Automatic annotation (TrEMBL):
Gene3D superfamilies: Amino acid/polyamine transporter I. Keywords: Cell membrane, Membrane, Transmembrane, Transmembrane helix. Its main location: membrane. It comes from the Bacteria. It is a multi-pass membrane protein. It is found in: Cell membrane. The chain crosses the membrane at residues 39-60, 107-130, 142-162, 169-193, 213-233, 253-276, 296-322, 348-367, 373-393, 414-435, 441-462. Pfam families: AA_permease_2 (PF13520). The lineage of its organism: Bacteria, Bacillati, Actinomycetota, Actinomycetes, Micrococcales. This is APC family permease. One of its GO terms (molecular function) is transmembrane transporter activity.
Length: 481
């Protein structure tokens, strides 16, 4: 299929291999932190099973995305796939509805990843407030969250200004600082006997749990929240235009990150419940790893854990920062956002998109509520996954894509798998997370999510107007004889 060049933007550079893509994506195993104490509130120790099933869901979905990434090696992950597949080639009318659908999917994905920066800046501020009494005496948690956001966003912007390769180096450093201590903190309680299996087996589900419509809707909402964390390793595919050999690098980076996520999510939740019990987790829902560290390592372990978690949060913010900016660049390249968002510097970094992402998250930090921000982001993530999986089905069935080279192919019949999980996301998980929000924190996060998603429509319409105006103003090509 021919490429639409009506909205030419700067190109990303192919500079990384699968190991570097994995390093940047290794923030995803740490996305469990905001929900580590949240899921047990609703499903007790069955949260361990929810995490395991959610990572397996990621394997089903990301197998489809790996094929799309190698079929469309210039597309930036989920946002790029959906835009490329749904647009109508050589469309002559005023508004291409297929292009709007693909662009909306990319916008949903951008909004899903974006709040990671705000969520973990708030958490960093909270941990700093608890770790350093001098800071607590001078600044409130809210002020520390804002300061943390400014310092982290400026620092990451400077590091990533010089290209994705340098971002990968930072990923290696932060992965070592955060994942290794996290692994020790996960394994040590088993070795020292602090894990009481009865805390898990004796509290598998809440005593008032029943399989009525109310609890089924809660379960769909829980899976939507869990998916936002446990399936997020699809971000390894978003760097497809920057891999040296995308046909080989994308599947390797994806599935390596998925394996790390599976063991991390299942074991970390099992350790927290095994050591503290469900009641202990509910007593410390924001940071349950801290009392686990106290139980195993004492006060010194607590300080080390907080430092490790802060490093982990910066790694997560790095992953989200890069993914969000690439999503905006992709939308600009496809003519779904104004051309300015596709501007890159001499190192191939989409700096305008990064600046907008940082500014948007500074505004989100002012909200101050992690559950409200996360719930709104989960709405965007389920929309993005649902539409992207439907894009995979179309890419397999539509004649226009039949002859494209597919360096990596999902197993036979995967279109049915993608269709099932697409429907699981849209509408079931969306309905579930909206229902869960209404029970817990009212309608504020739901309205936040829908307003941000709906704001895309006027932006898209303006972009199409600008593209038509630019096309009319462009001089006609000279005739040759």
């Amino acid at each position: 299929m021919s490429q639409d060049t009506s909205n030419e933007v700067d190109h990303l550079k192919r500079s990384i291999d699968w190991k570097q893509g994995l390093a940047i994506s290794l923030g995803v195993p740490l996305l469990i932190l905001p929900s580590l104490g949240y899921l047990p509130i609703y499903v007790s120790a069955a949260a361990i099973l929810v995490w395991g099933l959610s990572v397996l869901q990621g394997f089903f979905q990301n197998t489809a995305y790996a094929e799309l990434a190698t079929t469309f090696p210039k597309a930036s992950g989920l946002p790029g796939f959906a835009q490329h597949v749904f647009r109508t080639e050589n469309y002559k009318g005023k508004y291409d509805k297929g292009k709007l659908i693909g662009g909306f999917s990319a916008w949903s994905y951008w909004f899903a990843w974006n709040p990671v920066l705000a969520i973990f800046s708030i958490l960093v501020g909270g941990y700093l407030h608890g770790l350093f009494p001098a800071l607590a005496a001078t600044f409130s948690e809210y002020q520390l969250a804002l300061l943390s956001g400014v310092v982290i966003f400026v620092g990451l912007s400077i590091v990533n200004w010089f290209g994705l390769k340098d971002g990968a180096i930072l990923g290696y450093i932060l992965a070592a600082v955060s994942l290794i201590p996290l692994a020790i903190l996960t394994i040590a309680p088993f070795a020292t006997g602090h894990v009481d299996v009865a805390n898990i087996t004796g509290n598998w589900l809440p005593t008032d749990w029943s399989w009525d419509l109310h609890h089924v809707l809660i379960l769909f909402g829980i899976f939507a929240i869990a998916q936002w964390s446990a399936c997020g390793w699809e971000t390894a595919a978003i760097y497809a235009p920057e891999y040296k050999k995308p046909g080989k690098d994308v599947p390797k980076a994806l599935f390596a990150c998925g394996i790390v996520c599976f063991f991390s999510y299942v074991l970390v939740q099992a350790v927290v419940i095994g050591v503290l019990g469900v009641d202990g987790v509910m007593a410390e829902p924001i940071s349950p790893l801290i009392p686990v560290a106290q139980a195993v390592f004492g006060q010194v372990g607590t300080v080390v854990t907080i430092i490790m978690l802060i490093a982990a949060m910066i790694l997560i913010i790095q992953t989200a920062y890069l993914g969000s900016s690439r999503a905006m660049h992709s939308m600009s390249a496809e003519g779904n956002l104004p051309k300015v968002f596709g501007k890159t510097n001499q190192h191939g970094t989409p700096f305008v998109a990064m600046l907008v992402t940082a500014a948007f998250n500074m505004a989100l930090i002012t909200i101050g509520s992690i559950p409200a921000i996360l719930a709104a982001a989960a709405i965007g993530y389920t929309c993005a996954n649902g539409i992207s999986l439907f894009a995979y089905v179309k890419a397999k069935k539509h004649p226009s894509f039949a002859n494209l080279e597919r360096p990596f192919k999902a197993p036979k019949g995967w279109t049915n798998v993608a269709l099932v999980f697409g429907l699981f996301n849209l509408p079931f998980c969306v309905i579930g997370v909206v229902y869960l929000n209404s029970l817990e924190i009212g309608w504020s996060s739901t309205w936040l999510g829908f307003v941000v998603l709906a704001f895309y429509i006027p932006i898209w319409l303006f972009t199409q107007y600008e593209l038509r105006r630019t096309a009319k103003a462009a001089p006609a090509p000279a005739l040759t004889h």
